[in-house]
Write a structure and sequence with these properties.
Protein name: Phosphoinositide phospholipase C beta 1-4-like EF-hand domain-containing protein
Mean pLDDT: 77
Low-confidence stretches: none
Radius of gyration: 12 Å
Helix content: 55-70%
Oligomer: single chain
Number of strands: 0
InterPro entries: EF-hand-dom_pair, PLCB1-4-like_EFh
Distance between the termini: 38 Å
Shape: elongated
Structural class: mainly alpha
Number of helices: 2
Order of helices and strands: HH
Amino acid sequence: NDVIEPDDFTFDAFYALYHKICPRNDIEDLFQS
């Protein structure tokens, strides 16, 4: 079952997954500032 429940897929989960797929330091800097 490859359906993701919206309740399980928080922004933090997306953010961690996103960084594994395509790490971008400039975007990280945006979130830190």
